[in-house]
Amino acid sequence: MPAPAAVLTGLGSWLPTKVLANHEIAARLDTSDEWIRTRTGIRERRVAGPGESTVDLAVGAGRKALASTDGGADVVVLATATPDQPCPASAPQVAARLGLGTAAAFDVNAVCSGFVYALATAAGFIAGGIAERVLVIGADTFTTLIDPEDRTTVPIFGDGAGAVVLRAGDADEPGAFGPFDLHSEGEHADLLWVEAGGSRRRLSDDPGDRFLAMQGTAVFRHACARMAESSRTVLERAGWMVGDVDRFVGHQANIRILQATAKQLGMPADAVVANIDRVGNTSAASIPLALDDARRDGTLAPGNRVLLSAFGAGLTWGSTVLRWPDLGQPS
Ligand code: COA
After folding, report:
1. Of the four listed, 30, 76, 100, 187, which is most buried by Cβ atoms within 10 Å?
2. Given the CA of residue 111, which atom of ligand 1 is nearest to it?
3. Which residue among 149, 211, 220 has the greatest number of ligand 1 atoms within 8 angstroms of its CB, and so is best to mutate?
4. 251 classed as catalytic
5. Which CATH superfamily is domain 180-323 in?
6. What is the pLDDT of residues 269-328, one digit of tens each?
7. How many CB atoms lie within 10 A of CB 24?
8. Which residues are CB-neighbours of 267 under 8 A, at least 6 positions away?
């Protein structure tokens, strides 16, 4: 008997209420609404308010995803690089607040690729018979890592959360995730990192120590090349041609990265699903937020062949595919 597949059965997302528009950034830093829009595709992003944490956002998204389907979850996998505390993981607090009893719960940190890594982790739990239903959440408050004076990173990042419920099912039914393709390249960790605050370099009195440093142009190049390469691999494993893909839901880092990746793949521009204009780069939340927005506005329809591909700090990247299931009316 083939191993059970992880089938999408619930979806939800959650955003902080505070909107930060480009003109508000331009009023403070040496940049402009026009520069940000044309170089990144972002018009505005959401920012967690004081006291609003990653767990709060994850609970919001997780509750919506669970409410959209029957039943709970035996396992909670939280993809995040911004947990509420350095120790312990945040997933157990999310599970507790969602009333999931003593469900297994842990974090996965693959930064902006975290959601695809967490999906693969959940699929492995289901295939191995360890879980029947898994709640996978991507949630980040990445703005807490950003130097408020850094015009190269402030415009890019936003906060948010997205979640899916996966159930054990058959590989050939709509909503079944897989195959997967996952990779890393740690020698390039310093292209996008927060250098201090861990065991290698302890936090000092210099507040600059705890902020994200980014070599934007290099990251841009790696992101396009790796997402295209990984997409080709996963399509080949799935037995799909590029032309079979109806929707490409890539990590929302920069609209030009999404467009360039689609072009490298030979995919029409209108296959690209994008909500980056409204949310910016929300790290691990990016793909499930884009999925939830796209199914609400009808961009994603039952039967669509969907390619997911992510890239992030680490460096990490990964891809998977699914045929979009009928999830009913979004609440
Ligand atoms: N406003 C105005 N000018 C800015 C600016 C801003 N917010 N940020 C950078 N610039 C300037 C640079 O200083 C540079 O000036 P110079 O030519 O005088 O040196 C110029 O704009 C061009 O900078 P460059 O970095 O070449 O621009 P770019 O087209 O590569 O766009 C990014 C910059 C950051 C938008 C782009 O590199 C990018 O998106 N990289 C990937 C980042 C990412 O996705 N990170 C997360 C990955 S998960």
Report:
1. 76
2. 48
3. 220
4. yes
5. Thiolase/Chalcone synthase (3.40.47.10)
6. 999 999 999 999 999 999 999 999 999 999 999 999 999 999 999 999 999 999 999 998
7. 12
8. 242, 245, 248
